[in-house]
Structure formats: C-alpha cells, structure tokens
Amino acid sequence: MSYGLLKGKKGVIFGAMIETSIAWAIAEAAHREGAQFILSNAPVTKRFGNLPKLSELTGNSPIIYADATNDEDLKALFEETKRHFGGQIDFIVHAIGQSINIRKGLTYTELDYENLHRTLDISAISLHRVIRASLDTETLADGASVVALSYIGAQRTFSKYSEMNDAKALLESIARTYGYNLGKRKIRVNTISQSPTKTVAGQGLKGFDAMFEFADRVSPLGNADAASCADYTVTLLSDFSRMVTMQNLFHDGGFSSTGMSDELILMLAEALTKDEANQG
User: Taking Cα atoms as reference points, which of 79, 34, 31 lies closest to residue 13?
Assistant: First the structure.
C-alpha cells in the first residue's frame, strides 16, 4: 500500500547492487511512495550488480555510475542529476560500505593501514564527499533529508566487525556535524542503525550467521529486515520527520536497549548444564 509520503520528491540513492541490498529495498519503497530518483553505485559494480533491473522496477530510474570516493565523479553525478530533474533534489540515501581488511582476512590487531584508510574513505568519508558535492553543485535543496545506514558497532565493539566499528563511528560523527552545519537551511542529516541484515556486505563477515542469530534472539521484536528498514527510511525522507536531525536512530527490533533475553538465558543455562555434565 502506498501512502504517497514522497510524492513529488526527487533524490539520489547510493549503494543498491542486487536484490538483497538494503538500498535496493529503499529504492522500491521510495518509488512506491511516489519519489523519483537517480540510482548510483561504483562503476565496478557493473560487472556483478543488477542496477538495470532495479531501474525497471522503479519506473526506469536513471543510473549514473560514480565512485563515491572520487570528487570529480560525484560532481559530475550531481550536475547530471540537476539537469535530469531540471532543478534541485529533496533527499540523498547513503548505503555505502566496504572493509578491505575484513575481505583480506586481517584481524583488528593486524590491520593494514592503507587498507584502513581505504575502508574509512569508502564507508564513512564518502558521506562527507557526497554531501559536499551536492552542496558545491547547488543540487541539494533547502529542507532536504540525508539518510545514511549505520550499525551498532559504532557504539559497541563487535570483534568480527573489526575496522567497520571505527568506520561506522566516523560515519555517525560526520552525519551529526553536517546536520549541525546545515540546520539553518533546514536540511536534516541522520543515520539509521540497522539490525544485522543478510546482504552481500553482511554475509561477507566471518561469524555473521552467529551475529545474526544472537541479535535475533536478544531483540524483543527480532531482527529488522531490509523491507522494514526501507519503510523506516521513507519516513525519514518524508516531511513528517522535518524536525529530526543529527540523530542515530536504532532500527533493530529493540536489540540496542536489551541486555539479555529470556530465550538466550535459557539457551546458555542449557549449554552450561550440558558442559558440566560432560566434564563430570
């Protein structure tokens, strides 16, 4: 069902690649609610992504490939976006993240610093670059909304999340600081701290299945899926959240406010009982 929450709004959605991408679900939800938008991802994703299919599903949304760590690419993207729509845009969605060290199997105490710099640039500093390019090209309208996807690793240490804990902390800081600086123009900048989600990026983490199951058993509502995250994102892009900015908003089924669930306590008790029996 459509509520027309984004009717007449125009934007850019970064990061959709395949059907399991959260940005893919966000694009479908934004289209359902009446938005028009440009789809963008890095040029390398042409080889293994499926943006043309998403374009078809969302009313033939234009695709502009751009490296979000390249200022010239971003400038060209926003200039083309402004030409396409004949004016400014109302929202940006940043769903970009990649860990070079995790991909190479390096632990946090073994980080290659060049890889770390690249991870921070792709996963966090790219948000700063995207917003700045949209401002420098005068593409982002007053009253616009910028939403970036984050994870609770920004506040708590998840060992297998490694350098991405740092990247998400930086991402959230950039969102807060830009949110302050753009407040006079009524431009909102927020992050959504999403549950572990079965995306390409998430499942690339060693131990992801255990992280997913743990969060699902702790969260009173269970893990939030990509479709739910997309619906929540739509509300932040809409005028109904016009006074919400500089926030990191947890969309995790209650995980961030729960210490231990009854289900997990029972599981641990059973495991300890079995362990004691085996030792006896």
Answer: 31
CA distances (Å), origin 74, targets 15, 68, 129, 146: 14, 6, 8, 16
114-168 pLDDT, tens digit per residue, is 999 999 999 999 999 999 999 999 999 999 999 999 999 999 998 889 999 999 9
The two tokens of residue 10 are 């125009």
Q: In what order do the strands lie in the sheet with 188-194?
A: 36-40, 10-14, 89-94, 140-150, 188-194, 248-251
Contacts 24+ apart (CB under 8 A), 19-23: 19/50, 20/198, 20/199, 20/200, 20/226, 21/95, 21/199, 21/200, 21/226, 22/95, 22/149, 22/194, 22/197, 22/199, 22/226, 22/229, 22/230, 23/93, 23/95, 23/149
C-alpha dihedral over 76, 82, 84, 87, to 10 degrees? -170
Token pair listed for 190: 């927020």
Q: Judge if pTM exceeds 0.90.
A: yes
The CATH architecture of the domain made up of 10-279 is: 3-Layer(aba) Sandwich (3.40)
- Report whether 65 contacts 120 (CB < 8 A): no
Residues (pLDDT < 70) of the chain are 200-207, 275-276, 280
Contact criterion met (CB below 8 Å) for 29 and 234: yes
| Count of beta carbons in the 10 Å neighbourhood of residue 134 | 25
